[in-house]
């Protein structure tokens, strides 16, 4: 019984870490490649999750739904919806930099969360959407372990595509924009255009992470997309793992989610009279971890290593 409980915990842990790895890879596309300071991750996360849930859940008089689409169609809808939102936001903010982009993006994310919270006809508001099924429902393959394998395959696929993009000429332009924008503009590159492309692609990946989260957890509510869970943790994961390094983004997701889960176990041991301070203590411990990493390894566990240029022999 204890072994089965440990196995169930590990499967749940790795699945959540995989979902956050997808979010971290999306953020790496924006911040690690191009230097776009997006603090609105939770908004794209929420749009992807709710879109997939609405497309795949059975009909309900409480909210929009009843389409009963397959799992992959739900994920495709999540990616498309997040892409469209990223395009709209990117067109507005593509020319903004650093703190101005941060203010704009976090404001948009809060608008999305409040919209989800208050538009009962669409999302069922604070009561949330329940009954979101995993793929292969009501079959022998309907198990948490199978879903872990599915999430791992999506993580591997996203990693492969993002890694190829990083090593491509397109990725070199993004890094050039991050390092020296005036020189890149002088070379004839469209700064706003490349920024917009990176922002939209990163947003699409975040939407995919939202769809994977919805089908694993099976229930959505606005509280799941608070800035702490949907933005702050993802940033810590990317910084800890190594900004600009895709392997670092995945490793950072596993490490930081392990610390976050471990702090939940530790705060559960607190006396009853101090239980209410447990959540604040967990955030404090994550903040301390971030400070330690910034002091000891400012470039993360896996620092960025630009791909080697291949020279052809004449």
From TrEMBL:
Bilayer topology annotation: Multi-pass membrane protein
Transmembrane segments: 6-25, 37-55, 67-93, 100-116, 145-162, 198-218, 224-241, 248-267, 279-296
Alphabetical list of CDD domains matching this protein: TM_PBP1_LivM_like (cd06581)
Domain of life: Bacteria
Keywords, alphabetical: Cell membrane, Membrane, Transmembrane, Transmembrane helix
InterPro entries with a match to the protein in the record: ABC_transp_permease, LivM-like
PANTHER family attached to this UniProt entry: HIGH-AFFINITY BRANCHED-CHAIN AMINO ACID TRANSPORT PROTEIN BRAE (PTHR30482:SF10), HIGH-AFFINITY BRANCHED-CHAIN AMINO ACID TRANSPORT SYSTEM PERMEASE (PTHR30482)
Protein's name according to its UniProt entry: Branched-chain amino acid ABC transporter permease
Species of provenance: Chromohalobacter beijerinckii
Lineage: Bacteria, Pseudomonadati, Pseudomonadota, Gammaproteobacteria, Oceanospirillales
């Amino acid at each position: 019984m204890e072994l089965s409980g440990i196995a169930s915990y590990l499967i749940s842990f790795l699945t959540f870490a995989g979902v956050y790895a997808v979010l971290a890879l999306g953020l790496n596309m924006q911040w690690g490649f191009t230097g776009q300071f997006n603090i609105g991750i939770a908004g794209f996360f929420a749009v992807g999750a709710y879109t997939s849930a609405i497309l795949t859940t059975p009909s309900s008089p409480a909210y929009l739904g009843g389409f009963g689409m397959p799992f992959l169609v739900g994920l495709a809808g999540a990616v498309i919806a997040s892409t469209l939102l990223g395009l709209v936001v990117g067109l507005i903010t593509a020319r903004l930099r650093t703190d101005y982009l941060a203010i704009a993006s976090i404001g948009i994310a809060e608008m999305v969360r409040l919209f989800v919270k208050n538009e009962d006809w669409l999302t069922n508001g604070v009561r949330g959407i329940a009954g979101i099924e995993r793929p292969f429902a009501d079959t022998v393959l309907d198990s948490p372990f199978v879903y872990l394998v599915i999430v791992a395959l999506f993580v591997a696929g996203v990693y492969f595509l993002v890694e190829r993009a990083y090593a491509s000429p397109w990725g070199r332009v993004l890094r050039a924009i991050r390092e020296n924008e005036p020189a890149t503009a002088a070379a004839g590159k469209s700064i706003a255009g490349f920024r917009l492309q990176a922002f939209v692609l990163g947003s699409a990946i975040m939407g995919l992470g939202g769809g994977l989260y919805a089908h694993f957890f099976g229930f959505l509510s606005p509280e799941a997309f608070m800035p702490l869970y949907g933005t702050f943790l993802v940033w810590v994961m990317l910084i800890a793992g190594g900004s600009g390094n895709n392997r670092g983004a995945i490793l950072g997701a596993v490490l930081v989610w392990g610390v976050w889960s471990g702090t939940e176990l530790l705060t559960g041991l607190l006396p009853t009279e101090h239980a209410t301070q447990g959540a604040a203590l967990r955030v404090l411990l994550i903040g301390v971890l971030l400070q330690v990493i910034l002091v000891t390894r400012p470039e993360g566990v896996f620092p960025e290593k630009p791909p080697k240029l291949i020279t052809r022999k004449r």
